[in-house]
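D-2-hydroxyacid dehydrogenase, pasting as requested.
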Amino acid sequence: MNVLIAEDDFALYADLLRAAEPGLQLHAGREVEHLLAIAGQCPVWLGEPDLLAQLLRNGCKPDWAQSTWAGITPLLAADLPHDYRLSRAVGIFGQVMAEYVLGYILAHERQLLSRVASQGEKRWDNRLPSSLEGKRVLIVGSGDIGQSVAGFLAPFGVELHGIAREPRPLEPFEQVHSLDALVEQAGWADYLVNLLPDTPATRDVYDAGLFARMSPSALFINAGRGVAVVDADLVAALEAGQLAGAVIDVCREEPLPTWHPFWTAPNLLLTGHSSAPTLPSAMARLFIDNLRRFHAAEPLRGTVDFKRGY
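Structure tokens follow.
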């Protein structure tokens, strides 16, 4: 079978897939012109959604495309075809996202950044930290990544609540609420972690009204999508002391323009969309598993519902 690889790391992906399935005919690259010349020969695509979208926009279309990202927003554009099978990357980001979230929660709890500043000022900082035990963590987006994050946090003795499309029992959360309960739950949380995908229902949900409900000691972490946050409202909330701080990994425009107020907002840390990188070895294993399912006409892991948006 001919497989198109449209990726920055196309050579590494080709080596991994060749080792797993020597019979595959791999056609790989990063330049759109090169990819367009061979895309029509390949019923299966593997790659970055922004590159795949350019191929679709130029009249090419696969039988099945596997995204190497969890987010597939570029492929949801109204001017692109949606009559093919698309799967997003699932089951491979849980640990790296959990490491990111846990790292910044611990840094906040232990006042790591302010202690670095104190050392730079040669000021002895003997403030005592508190513990994560008993702290309230709200994870907004309780899919496979959110559940993994919760699983890593649970041993620290935190209280875990989740937000999902509909309320339901879901381990290891004590409670899972619907998105309608987000504002109320924001007032409950010591740590609010956004992992929502980009859909019409999840845009601009973090606004002035929600930030006003948060505790002045709470930390907001956005590792989901930038469009979920009303930027000006977050900056105003930080300036007013309505929350203790924010860790922002994703923004509406990336790279963030130099004029953007996030650069100078008080107690806001930018992490440059680094929270959960795709590990090629894990992505290759997912692709090979889905390729077997594709050949067997079985449901694919991470199948995208174009109407739902994920």
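Note for the archive: The longest helix spans residues 94-109.
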